[in-house]
Design brief:
Blueprint: E1 3-11, E2 23-29, H1 33-46, H2 57-61, H3 73-82, E3 89-94, H4 103-121, E4 129-135, E5 146-147, E6 150-151, H5 157-182, E7 185-191, H6 197-211, H7 213-217, E8 221-225, H8 243-255, H9 262-274, H10 279-296, H11 298-301, H12 308-320, H13 328-344, H14 354-361, H15 372-392, H16 396-416, H17 430-445, H18 449-462, H19 468-481, H20 484-495, H21 499-505, H22 511-528, H23 550-564, H24 570-584, H25 591-595, H26 597-607, H27 617-627, H28 629-637, H29 639-642, H30 651-655
Parallel strand pairs: 1-4, 3-8, 4-7
Antiparallel strand pairs: 1-2, 2-3, 5-6
Helix pairs in contact: 1-3, 4-5, 8-9, 8-10, 9-12, 10-13, 13-15, 14-15, 15-16, 15-17, 16-17, 17-18, 18-19, 19-20, 19-22, 20-22, 22-23, 23-24, 24-26, 27-28
Amino acid sequence: MATYTFAIDETGSFTMAEEDPSFVCGVLISKDELTIKQKYQQAYKDFGLPEPIPNDTKSLIRSETFHFCSLTPEKKDICKKLLLPLADKVYVSKGKPTLYANNQNWWLVAVTVVISEFLKTGTFEQGDKVEVQIDNRNDETWGVIRENGDYKTPVGDEAFFKYHNYIKEQIKINISKIAQARGISIEIKFLSDTCSFFINLADVVCGFARKERKSILQEKIVDCSCSKYASNDDPAAFVDKNPITALSLIFQQISNDDLSNVPLLENNLLKKLRLDADNYPFAFDMFYDLLKSKIEERATNSKLVAIKTVVNVFLKEIRNANKLLLPAAKRLELMVLFTEYFSHIGDMEMPFAKDEFLEALKENGQNSETRMLRKWEKYISFSLHEAQVLFNGYRFTESVENFETIWGEQEKIVSLMPKHIFENEEPRDEPTTALIGTLAQSYAYAGKLNEAIDYFEMSKAYAIKTTKRTDSYLLTVYHRQGNIEKARKCFFGQTGKTPEDYAAKKDFSDSWKLLSYCKLRALELYKNKSTNLPCVDLQELKNYNSEYPFPLIQKWEGIAAWFEDSQKNKQTVENYFSDAISNLLKDENGFAIKTLALPIIQCFAIVNNQNPFHAKYNNIISELKKQCPAFDVYVEKSASQFVIKNNKADIWERALLLPFIYA
């Protein structure tokens, strides 16, 4: 039996204010207290503090010496070197709950989801023990009565302990089912960060997670969405008296993949909300946050298609909404979001025509957009997602023409911007990065790979946040060109690791990174007949057979396994191909997602032409051609390659049957 220490601290005030990001940070620490104390003593010495170095806990950390907010840049560097490595894994709450009463309630939800995610995903044996240490709540946080604007002091010990014991019991109730299911025992303690090295370390880690997350902690962090917290109350009980609470409860369920109350939402609840002018826009804010959260989850466990019924309910609602209840600025935001969603699930029809978007953009009024440059930026945002829908419909030339025009206009605007407003006078701008990157995608889909490479590289010059997605696109281009060296360089740009280090880490939770790894492994086996990159047992992964992009992971790992040993791996390859094809051809998938099955069926014919999809291939492709004239044209241009019988192409050529990332 093992004992684990999980220390928790927080940052922010947990209020509604957007300018005050708030989150709880839970740190898994496997090192014992003596080891941690020795690292703190070394840090104390490196800080240049007076000797002798304290040997007892309180003397070493009782002051502000190791509080993150009091660390100088030099001391932060020391803590990065000595203290951060003590954190094995960092669980960070993300976003707000869909329903909460006050800042204290939000904090409690955040603590619950962080502990819950640790208990769900941790590697435990029956009988293991987890000690959760949580930093004491300060007076301001837990609501001591004010006198003349100031808090009463001192706070009585009885009230202090009563409050913390109550919170402790609430947390135990919230997590008890998970602990029982895992067969582990939980002990929860509230302690001060001036008497626990574990909580003090959590304070330091929490500070770095807030200030320097991407540069030093990204690989250790697990995001824990507060929106997934469910109170288990019945939404139907609140529809009449408090419809916004009912909606919050339904969204809690949807966040946890429970769609049982969607009919209640469609048939009754939205009618009630239309009568509440104050809460009606707020309902769409909640929907926006829910859908954005689901889109962001695509990398780890995509379930976007599964919530299409929910999205369609709100799409119908916004189409019929009273403009006085839902002003132009809000409708513009939602039009972009709906377009983004339908692009991700492979649809080739726009949820809103461009003319509808422009009409809302041109509206004048108290709640309309009044800034010229912001209107242009919103138009770019809409166009970016419109391009993805055009890609889904194989209208690549149209997208090239659109974005050559838009980039021409944006280039003029950028050239007129005064250089002194930019750092080092370099005009970096995220919308420009996305715009040029989408033009590059358009070229890649249209088969103009050299132009695509040039524009992807150009987009990097404007990037502020990250170029990881651009590197993943470039890897796809170099993969198609058979350039292993450049594909490897792009893999490092996307993941921050060599493919060997990535494989050794065995963290395959991000589907996009895993897809790039499997593509690279297959490429090396195809070109070099060997690779040092080990295979990944996909069926062991928690997100096995999840929505797109996972079927492409199955495709490329299957191809790699075939190259590695076609006899030994034949059954594995067949399983991967069969699961991928079945997944892609589901009725609820959008058009573009279904087309991705065609190359896999072609590859399957080489592995086993008696497979159940072989005889259906011609009917599948015929039906897809009927649905999309542009796809019909694309197929006819390479007609011989799309024929499955008597096709002389090898498995690699068949795998690359479709353009760019569709392969």
